[in-house]
Amino acid sequence: MTGVRGPAAGALLALRYAVLAVLALLFLLPFYVMVKTAVSSPADVASQTFVLWPSQPDWSAFGRVLEDPSFTTAILTSSLMAVSMTVGQIAIAAMAGYALARIPHRLGQPLFALTVLMLLIPAATTFLPNFIIVAKLGWVDSLQGLVVPTLFSAFNVFLFRQFFLAFPKELEEAGKLDGLGHLGVFVRIVVPNSLAFASALTVLGFVGAWNAFLWPLVVAGSGSGALTVQVYLSQFLTAQTFDYTGLFAAALLSLVPVLLVFVVLQRWLVRGVAETGMGGA
After folding, report:
1. Which is it for the CA torsion 158, 159, 164, 165, positive or negative?
2. 150 with 85: CB under 8 angstroms?
3. What is the DSSP string of 213-265?
4. What is the pLDDT of residues 29-48, one digit of tens each?
């Protein structure tokens, strides 16, 4: 705290680090449980006796998952789906948000009100009409069936509009003096100065797309053309069998792409949150 000196400042600093250490352990606890379960035998998993670590760790579950062709297919499908959904959502939301914030039109306010209204509609209620459209187009069990119905994100449009309302108008006016129109100003001035904010939404969007389960489950059906990681993980738990070691091993392996995206965009994520106030006061 500002103004605190001497032993009191040292005590506060030690308390702060102690609290952070406890929180870090709590956040890491699920990963410990996942790793421990993945290397345990079925008997250890079913045992009611708690052990900190299996006496004879069995890493064969990771080999079984990696050798399964369905896992490779699921990783590839989820990667393509997450990248396509994230890029599409960010691009569409950025253009729509800029239009609502900066381009005067008599339909601007009604469209923004409709966008806000869409935030109140549960996503699950749109599955049936979306599936009917996907089925009519012949996109069931396909990548386009997974991606196209989810490209519009009302939440992202709302956030981009609020961000562009606070965007410095002087920069846009300078571009207009150089002869740029709305599209030129957007592409050459607004977008390059909005990368931090867009990157923050990119990380959130990628994680959300990677973790999507209900819509991929509906579209995938019984085929493998739309088999995603989350649908693949659900196959370890059936009415007859419960393969917890395989489930947690596959779950750990499926975290690798998400962690890579987070590590690459971490700096932009922190900068975007700091610049836009998404983290609160």
Report:
1. positive
2. yes
3. -HHHHHHHTTSSTT--HHHHHHTTB-SS-B-HHHHHHHHHHHHHHHHHHHHHH
4. 999 999 999 999 888 888 88
